[in-house]
Design a protein that fits this description.
Strand order of the largest sheet: 1-3-2
CATH architecture of the largest domain: Orthogonal Bundle
Order of helices and strands: HHHHHHHHHHEEEHHHHHHHHHHHH
Number of helices: 22
Number of domains: 2
Largest sheet: 3 strands, mixed
Structural class: mainly alpha
Shape: globular
Radius of gyration: 23 Å
Distance between the termini: 68 Å
């Protein structure tokens, strides 16, 4: 009888997975091919599906099955797929049953329409177009947090949606350690002669950029039979199932490398999804452990591989041949230094490794203030500009390059931004362990052999999907919780060499 009940839970999980996949398809289409006029209809479609999904997850049937399976779960190996599936389902059920179905439906409808409003606002650099939508989203997010009161901090319930088990106080503690060391490193770099990257800022044909990115994704072993790449305003990765993982990229014809690094970043996300064990297919475990762990994969491929000396020793001749008129007189080490230039900039997605986390810290500060009510949406552009001046010494000339540059708030993803910086930290923690386990990793990358790295990630991270919470997974692999120290060491060593800082 117990086995039968577990099979029934699996069957219900399959239905939940199928609905989630359908929602993902509609979301992908919205950001790639949907005509602008379709936003209201798409909002209705997604809100209906979101409500159906919510009711399915919070059904009395699942609640009863979870209760009946308690004795069974207690006898299982706690690391077994079955035990973890029951645990993760119970956690999701517990959270979802506290949230009103009406809230779920309204949130899905508002955020769908808000994304189109954000696109219009960004295109015209007019925050007033987006403001009423963001005001509604912030109100809904505050309402969401109240479903989980009492809490240590109003931001905690939102953060938990992306980083299970992590608290706002944990993130603040990590960032308080990280911030002064990054600021000090940037100060030292700014005192040194700046590297030349002028060769990156000239016309580069779009098709050649696209084709080069595709060739690198192929070398990364992105499975084109189970995935594809398209273009979008803001690059993203989405999964409709283990056999259909899609990425998007953006191409800027006056910057040679944006498209490549965008493809490598999203390719890292996609490899994670493609590497999840088939045994977990159509269950709640068939996704990443958390957004920070997911981000560690994308940042690893984008930065630790794609911005490395070893990578460009091998791939630069190919790039140079592709863009001979732009790079014909630029040697590989000059190019390597150019793509690693440290310079405070307005745009997060184009920022360098040394300044990137400061962008995230600013967004966290603003999100917390909005959730606490100490910052109203109408004052957000002014607060953004003041924060940019404080953190990076820059003031955006307009809203498009300031408060409107990221899509996340239009989708209601408040609580998401910290995962980008946490992903950076995790990527280097994993990287240190990988180099211990694969002593010739740099030589492999320098020979264009990326399979050893992917095999390690498949074995230690990808296959488990969401079986383990993020802190637990990182501790299992590295012996430590999320720790900023390895990342600081990495930055100091890398940029110390490029900028000759002792």
């Amino acid at each position: 009888m117990t086995d039968e009940k577990y099979r029934k839970l699996e069957s219900l999980q399959n239905e939940i997975s199928d609905i989630t996949g359908a929602i993902a398809v509609l979301g992908w289409d919205q950001q790639t091919y949907m005509p602008q006029g379709g936003s209201e209809d798409r909002g209705d479609q997604l809100s209906t599906l979101a409500r159906i999904l919510h009711l399915k997850i919070t059904s009395d049937e699942i609640g009863k099955l979870l209760e009946d399976l308690l004795p069974y779960a207690s006898q299982l190996d706690p690391d077994s797929d079955e035990a973890r599936l029951i645990k993760v389902t119970r956690r999701e059920y517990s959270k979802r049953t506290r949230v009103s179905p009406d809230w779920v439906e309204e949130f899905a409808r508002v955020t769908t329409v808000a994304e189109t409003a954000w696109e219009q606002a960004r295109e015209t650099s007019d925050f007033s177009i987006f403001r009423p939508f963001l005001e509604t989203i912030v109100r809904l997010e505050r309402d969401y947090a109240q479903f989980f009161a009492p809490f240590e901090h109003v931001y905690d319930p939102l953060l938990d949606n992306y980083e299970p088990g992590l608290k706002t106080a944990d993130v603040k503690e990590i960032f308080d350690v990280l911030r002064p060391q990054q600021v000090e490193l940037i100060r030292k770099i700014m005192e040194k002669p700046q590297v030349d990257d002028s060769f990156l800022h000239m016309p580069y044909p779009e098709k050649e950029q696209w084709d080069f990115g595709v060739s690198i994704l192929t070398d990364m072993d992105f499975d084109w039979k189970r995935g594809r790449q398209d273009k979008s305003i803001h690059p993203f990765t989405t999964s409709f199932g283990l056999g259909d993982v899609r990425i998007t990229t953006r191409v800027e014809t006056d910057q040679s490398i944006v498209s490549l690094f965008s493809s490598m970043h999203e390719g890292g996300h996609a490899l994670y999804e493609q590497g999840i064990s088939p045994k977990l297919r159509r269950t709640m475990l068939a996704t990443g452990a958390s957004m920070a762990v997911h981000e560690s994969q994308s940042r690893m491929w984008e930065n630790l591989v794609g911005h490395s000396e070893a990578f460009w020793r091998h791939y630069y001749p190919r790039l140079q041949q592709t863009f001979s008129s732009q790079l014909g007189n630029v040697d590989w080490f000059t190019f390597y230094k150019g793509v690693n230039k440290v310079e405070p900039s307005l745009i997060r997605v184009a920022s360098d490794e040394a300044t990137y986390n400061l962008h995230i810290m600013l967004r966290l500060q603003l999100e917390i203030a909005m959730m606490e009510g100490s910052l109203e949406v109408k004052d957000l552009p002014e607060a953004w500009n003041a924060g940019m001046k404080e953190y990076l010494g820059l003031i955006p000339p307009n809203d498009a390059s300031g408060v409107l540059q990221d899509i996340h708030w239009s989708g209601g993803s408040i609580g998401y931004f910290p995962t980008y910086a946490l992903g950076n930290l995790i990527s280097v923690q994993l990287w240190e362990q990988i180099n211990k386990d694969i002593p010739d990793l740099e030589q492999q990358i320098g020979a264009g052999k990326l399979g050893g790295l992917l095999d390690w990630l498949r074995k230690n991270i990808h296959q488990y999907g969401a079986k383990f919470e993020p802190q637990e997974l990182i501790r299992r692999v590295t012996g430590s919780r999320i720790d900023p120290k390895p990342y600081v060491r990495y930055l100091q060593e890398k940029f110390g060499q490029i900028y000759k800082i002792s």
